[in-house]
Design goal:
single chain, alpha/beta, 24-stranded parallel sheet, 5-stranded antiparallel sheet, 5 helices, elongated
């Protein structure tokens, strides 16, 4: 009987021991799984905190809240913390974000850059049509000539390629720089009072206003009309002339300007700025001749440039720019429409001449286009005629593309735009700033869109 009781006791103790051990093991497993669950949850929250740090850093970059680098900040989200450090590496921003929740730590290192605009010297986000393509003369092969276009015929594409152009066709379109983003407006140069009254000027009036004037001369008005004939058709003056209208500038006669300042031998500068349109009626156009030191011409209209005249919109003739780089800008966020040539240029030049035609919604020249028949004088090969056409969302339709001179033809490249912005000392700051704004758009300096180049999780 005692033996039996001893066996039962031993068995009972064994069972209790086994159950105790099993319970301990079960408790250990449950505790471990709970700990793993907590650790996993903390790790996820730490990772989310690190991601939040990256997102906040990009928001700060977009809103230009960071002015110097390296830069650090920290914060808390969902009871997890993040510490973020930003630095610059070339054109990229390096964002290092560390998230922490209890003992869990996660880290993300991202490289981001601003998304700039695509750029070709000839950038047409639409259809390019040219009825007559003529590329002859001393320099038939272009340099720095890249054309980005949405739609082009095979025949015209081949004609450009035979002139040493590189042509990229993308039917889905491009993101080109937009003239609507450029910072030019009448209010920057004239007071509200000056811009509140219409002005009607004859050529004689204009000549009288410029008599004995030098430096910058601003003629301001709500609507400005220039027409009629004066005692002398050609205007010869020492001032840098700015015609600025809150609404429209209307020109109803050919404006002939002769250069060669007597006061300081600097470049001749002529600018038309309109909050509305620049309109050329009748036989109107701009005839610019004999500016031996160089010249800068700007047509800027917020609501488009229209010419019903069969005259050349801008004609440049004579012996030009022996000393300074010269520039012609035709810029509008809308369209440029002409009946005659956009540019007729038979002049002799000895320094670089740049032509920038920038119209967001398209360019149309019904019976003209480009007519370039000049030459580069004795220094041929050392200077260029650089051309750029920028259309961000429209078509280009030209009757003719006529290049038959003795000049060196080239596209206006990004590196030249950068040079004219940052290094050329011969271009007045007002015109230089146009190159700087275009460069910033290409670089994405003012962009609020960022592209993630790399994303590493630790």
């Amino acid at each position: 009987m005692k033996a039996k009781e001893g066996f039962i006791l031993t068995t009972t103790l064994a069972i209790i021991t086994i159950l105790t051990i099993a319970g301990a093991i079960g408790l250990y497993i449950v505790t471990k799984e709970t700990r793993l669950t907590v650790d996993t949850s903390d790790s996820i929250k730490a990772l989310k905190a690190a991601e939040s740090g990256i997102e906040i850093a990009i928001i700060k970059l977009k809103n230009r809240l960071i002015t110097s680098f390296p830069y650090s900040f920290s914060g808390t989200i969902d009871n997890a913390t993040y510490i973020v450090t930003l630095d610059v590496n070339g054109n990229s921003f390096i964002i290092d974000s560390e998230g922490k929740k209890n003992d869990a730590e996660r880290r993300i290192v991202a490289s981001v850059e601003k998304k700039g605009s695509t750029f070709f010297p000839f950038s047409i986000n639409g259809k390019l049509k040219i009825n007559r393509f003529h590329n002859k003369g001393r320099s038939r092969s272009w340099t720095d000539a890249q054309l980005g276009v949405k739609i082009i015929s095979e025949e015209l594409k081949r004609a450009f390629e035979e002139s040493a152009f590189t042509v990229k066709v993308d039917p889905s379109g491009f993101d080109f720089p937009k003239a609507s983003n450029i910072n030019i407006s009448p209010e920057k140069y004239c007071s509200d009072v000056e811009l509140n009254k219409d002005k009607n000027l004859t050529l004689s009036d204009l000549k009288e206003l410029l008599k004995n004037k030098s430096g910058n001369v601003f003629i301001c008005g709500k609507n400005i009309s220039i027409g009629g004939t004066g005692s002398e058709n050609a205007l010869d003056f020492d001032a840098d002339l700015f015609i600025v209208a809150k609404e429209n500038v209307t020109i109803s006669s050919e404006l002939k300007f002769t250069g060669n300042k007597q006061s300081d031998n600097s470049a001749d500068n002529l600018s038309f700025i309109a909050g509305g349109q620049i309109i050329f009626n009748s036989n109107a156009g701009i005839d610019f001749s004999g500016s031996q030191e160089g010249y800068n011409i700007l047509l800027y209209a917020q609501k488009g440039i229209e010419s019903t005249s069969f005259n050349d919109l801008i004609k440049i003739s004579g012996n030009q720019n022996t000393e300074y780089t010269s520039n012609v800008f035709i810029i509008t966020p809308e369209t440029v429409r002409t009946k005659g040539n956009l540019i007729f240029e038979p002049s002799t030049t000895k320094k670089d001449v740049n032509f920038l035609i920038w119209a967001d919604k398209g360019i149309e020249s019904e019976q003209g286009g480009f007519k370039i028949t000049g030459n580069s004088g004795n220094t041929f090969g050392n200077n260029e005629r650089n051309f750029s056409i920028l259309v961000s969302n429209g078509n280009v339709s030209l009757n003719s593309w006529f290049f038959a001179g003795q000049e060196q033809r080239s596209g206006l490249s990004y590196y030249e735009i950068k040079y004219y912005c940052e290094e050329d000392t011969t271009i007045p700051s007002f015109y230089k700033n146009i190159y700087c704004q275009l460069k910033d758009m290409i670089d994405g300096r003012d962009s609020k869109t960022f592209k993630i180049k790399s994303w590493k999780i630790y």
